[in-house]
Amino acid sequence: MLIPSASYLNPGDVSWQLIAATLVGLMSVPGLAVLYGGLVKRRFAVNSAMMVLYAFAVVLIVWVLWGYNMSFGVPWKLGPGMLSAIVGVPGTVLGAASEQARAVVPLLASAMPGLHFPASAMIYFQFAFAAITPGLLAGAALGRMNFKAWMIFVPLWTTLVYSVVAFSMWGGGWLAQLGAVDYSGGYVIHLAAGVSGFVLAAMLGPRLAKDRADFRPNNLMFTLVGAGILWLGWNGFNGGDPYFANGDAALAVLNTNIAAAMALLAWLGLDVWVRGRATLTGAINGMIAGLVAITPAAGYVNGTGALLIGLCAGVIPWLTMNLLGQRGVFRKVDDTLGVIHTHGIAGAIGGLMAGLLADPHVLVYLGVHHAAPAAVTGLFYGNPHQFLVQLEALVAIVIYDAAMTFLVLKLVGRLVPLRAADPVIEGGDRAMHGEEAYDYSDVPHVPHRPPAAVPSFSAEASDA
């Protein structure tokens, strides 16, 4: 049966929004799951992928029952002034009564009165963002977290941390009212994942000593597949956030790829000239840092800005991972995949550089010859205030995410142990889930031959 579209719908906008949402969803499943499954030791491949798969499913249920409205709904008036702009009123988006004719968000209603897609498209698109965030922070805890604790932690964290920060920046909350911007999640998603992942890693304690000493990837080709899905999926991540199939979406996609390529090359250059060799894992780290850093600025900067952001994203997280990562608190806290560097620090870089490099003329370049609410002006274009509010938002999110993640983990720890028992960690996937990623039962036993000594940053595969 042919069902006619509502008169306000633009088929191009609706189609692009659904495609972009699907691209973002693919970044989690299979993208992130495959990436993690290849990066860890063989005995943790199933557990690492399962953490992402579980988060993807449970966040969707949380999202449609109360999370979406907490992030994008009517403000919950908890008191006067800013207390009325902290979080949205929890409520379901299930059922015909809650499916509004159009996607209406308080902040977007004034800035984009001509939204041309239904609320269901907005709900699903934003779910894909919410779902990948706990998956990203899981990278800091791989190799030792109790899966039961993860099952409780994810819905609680999504409710009390992600939804509150999303509302503050995207739902018309207090940070948005200050003028802070985050084009597509450098602060809301990546900074949050880096900070919360670091707190999670600290509270779990380190991996087993043998794992921390040698945690080389078990399948680098598998890892590359996941990384490739992340890179191309990011076109939907940043290209979908103008909410229109327009020139700004195209600019965001181009800027995303420029920054990723520049960061990858910068990271590889440092690996070659400082460490002595290029590695695939280094290239992937650089790529991810570039993608993360451009995310808060993708549609606000011109191509030169994207190149500069990519350069900084390739250099600064490399320095923090390879220099600071061996010292002080960064050494004591066992962040398995360095999420604080490639996501937390890279997200901070991008958010601050948006305050420096946001070009108010990009809309003119795209053929919009009038003042538009989407125009953002950075310090280098005459508006120092933008950098200051970006810095304020950075500090606020770091403090809130760290404190609330700590409290959530304390609560979960009273219900079940946060960390798996050492014998379970030793047993890996077989002990945790009763299954393994690779079945070698029919393979004749071959005595283990230790690999030749290689530097700790080597990307060669592990037999463990």
How would you name the CATH homologous superfamily? Ammonium transporter AmtB like domains
Number of helices: 18
Average pLDDT for all residues: 89
Count of the separate structural domains: 1
**DSSP, total strands:** 0
**Major beta-sheet overview:** none
Q: What would CATH call the architecture?
A: Orthogonal Bundle
- Helix content class: 55-70%
Low-pLDDT residue spans:
97-102, 368-373, 453-464
Could you give the order of the helices and strands? HHHHHHHHHHHHHHHHHH
> In CATH's first tier, which class applies?
Mainly Alpha
Shape: globular
The termini sit apart by 56 Å
Q: Remind me, CATH topology?
A: Ammonium transporter fold
Structural class: mainly alpha
Over the alpha carbons, how many angstroms does the gyration radius reach? 22 Å
Classify the beta-strand content into a percent band.
Answer: under 5%
Give a quick summary of the entry.
This protein is mainly alpha-helical and 464 residues long. The protein has helices spanning 11-39, 45-72, 106-111, 119-138, 147-170, 174-178, 186-204, 209-213, 220-239, 247-275, 280-294, 303-322, 328-332, 339-357, 362-365, 384-415, 422-427, 429-433.
Provide a descriptive summary of the structure in words.
The protein is globular and about 65 Å long. The protein is 63% helix and 0% strand. It has 18 helices and no strands. The longest helix has 32 residues, at 384-415. The chain has a single domain (12-90, 117-423), classed as Orthogonal Bundle (Ammonium transporter fold). Helix 7 packs parallel to helix 16 (384-415), helix 11 crosses helix 12 (303-322) and helix 14 runs antiparallel to helix 16.
